[in-house]
Amino acid sequence: MSITVVGSVAYDTVTTSFGRSERQLGGSAIYFSLAASKFTKTFPVGVYGNDFKQSDLELLERNSIDISNLRKEDGLTFFWEGLYDNDDINNRQTLATDLNVFENFVPTLNKPAQNSEVIFLANINPELQFDVLGIAKNTNRHSFVGLDTMDLWINSAEKSLKKVITKSDVIMIDQSEARLLSGENNLKNAGRKIMNLGAKCVVIKKGEHGVLIFINDHEYALPGYLTNDVKDPTGAGDSFAGSFFGFLDKCASYESKDIFHASIFGTIIASYTVENFGVKSLLLIDGEMIYKRYLDYMNLIGYKYIYSENKFKDYLNL
Amino acid sequence: MSITVVGSVAYDTVTTSFGRSERQLGGSAIYFSLAASKFTKTFPVGVYGNDFKQSDLELLERNSIDISNLRKEDGLTFFWEGLYDNDDINNRQTLATDLNVFENFVPTLNKPAQNSEVIFLANINPELQFDVLGIAKNTNRHSFVGLDTMDLWINSAEKSLKKVITKSDVIMIDQSEARLLSGENNLKNAGRKIMNLGAKCVVIKKGEHGVLIFINDHEYALPGYLTNDVKDPTGAGDSFAGSFFGFLDKCASYESKDIFHASIFGTIIASYTVENFGVKSLLLIDGEMIYKRYLDYMNLIGYKYIYSENKFKDYLNL
User: Fold this and answer.
1) Which of A103, A129, A192, B25 is deepest in the core (most CB within 10 A)?
2) Residues 147-186 in A contacting B (C-alpha not used; CB under 8 Å)
3) pLDDT tens series, chain A, 318 aa
4) How many domains does chain B have?
């Protein structure tokens, strides 16, 4: 069992009210892989430049990530700089986006990466996402495909994006993008409309407010984990996706109940990610810590009360 | 068992993308009482004017609401007019607030209302809220006190408000007001800080994103019910509060598990309220409908999956 993820490899400079972290390891493929590696083998597909540190490659390998599909190109690694609002960490400003070697990125997958049971197309040009599905030989037949996107592609490449959605099993999208893509403000309607584009499952990410999951004719809602130290929200969405698909690959089943539980793991691991700058938390957490927070999360959503009480009818004189 | 609620009696003119409803019955004491009346006897305490319709008084009585503490004053009933944004129903503009007879409202409670086990102080001047607690003879000894407030009082009467909070068991507050009152943007920190003001329980209302509940050393989070027809959000918060305290009064117990379940009923009944203009839904729903939506809500939060699966440790190699 393994996952192939196609996305960015980056250095990020991030400033929040908790401080400033310069040129920290980042990018969607990196956050995704480190989160997924808690559950399964991961093949990130991406490109980095001459400035990419050997120690960062080693760090990935130490976390059981197969780096054979990360290609070095002449130039600099993708660089992003962001400033999160002091008063509202949900607001951020992009100060720099230097695509560098990522600008002409053409994904290539070696044999093992082509054969992964799960393919995740992180937020890149939908045309490239479509090409990757053509390369991965299991696609459309045996593999399970996840998709992320952003407002840029919804606005500039809607047709290509819709083509990729028809080939996808799960689309992960944040609430404002779901509204933009569907033209619906109400999130239930938005989720249903995106389902109608051809995805089998839609996960709408609402940041601190959790996620909505649409699958078949059902919806599920999970609140976010309550943490008091949000130091750096960068990579939360990719950590969510990495744990989500990592869990699905590990349990080798994609039914509603699996997707529901995958969302719980996504929520838990993303909550760890934001408690530290960059990938720091992802490197620290182990199975024990994930399980501990899983129990905390179960308490947060009141599972023990739901279990023990089943006498609602009495209260309604039914 | 009974509840006394002190708040407004109003006529509201509301415009949303679903239409316009003129001079519909409204006000916090009305929404609260109609919701609470699904569970228990309710004494609204308030004032109305010469224009208040006899048929509206009869409507309340038909719903087992005791109207003996609603006083008629010479003048017009409190009138509010609001316009909800076409694109985002969570945004609203107040077009008119005519306090009328509500301007000099001095709550008076008859004996039965003074003896209620539950007292809810809807969103009025904190000084009046404090006076009501002085009148209700069980207060501080035997009764259970709930409190609502708004940004106006946080900004203009913070000291009085904090005095009332120390006398309250539950404070219900929306997320932006919780941030304002606590000076904390992070809602976990905000909830904890408000607990430190002396309330035994804090419920932070997040509209479509559900609620956070702080009680003792624990937090609980419940997502909102997913509805696709939000026709008129007016009264959602007061319906939530009415069902919440109605349920608590009915089960005559105020432990964490009761407050958790009260929040589920609050969520369910508020979700019905917003599906129609004004109090229309509150008049229509019965125990069967509440129970049906309770089951839907349980499915939404995935209780059957949480019940049936307890093998998370396997996935983490623990």
Assistant:
1) A129
2) 185-186
3) 899 999 999 999 999 999 999 999 999 999 999 999 999 999 999 999 999 999 999 999 999 999 999 999 999 999 999 999 988 888 899 999 999 999 999 999 999 999 999 999 999 999 999 999 988 866 556 689 999 999 999 999 999 999 999 999 999 999 999 999 999 999 999 999 999 999 999 999 999 999 999 998 899 999 999 998 899 999 999 999 999 999 999 988 999 999 999 999 999 999 999 999 999 999 999 988 998 999 999 999 988 777 665 565 666 655
4) 1
Half-sphere exposure of A317 (CA within 13 A, CB side): 7
**Which of helix, strand or coil describes residue B171?**
strand
Q: Does A295 touch chain B (CB under 8 A)?
A: no
- Is A313 an 8 Å CB contact of chain B? yes
Reading the block at residue B164, the tokens are: 């009332």
Report the residue from A187, A212, A226 with minimal CB separation from B212: A226
Query: What is the domain-level CATH number for residue B182?
Result: 3.40.1190.20
Please state the ipTM of this predicted complex.
0.90
The DSSP secondary structure of A106-161, one letter per residue, reads -----HHHHT-SEEEE-SS-HHHHHHHHHHSTTTTTT-EEEEE--HHHHHH-HHHH
Residue A99 maps to a domain: yes
Q: Measure A159 CA to nearest chain B CA, in Å.
A: 24
- On chain B, the residues whose CB falls within 8 A of the CB of A230 are 186
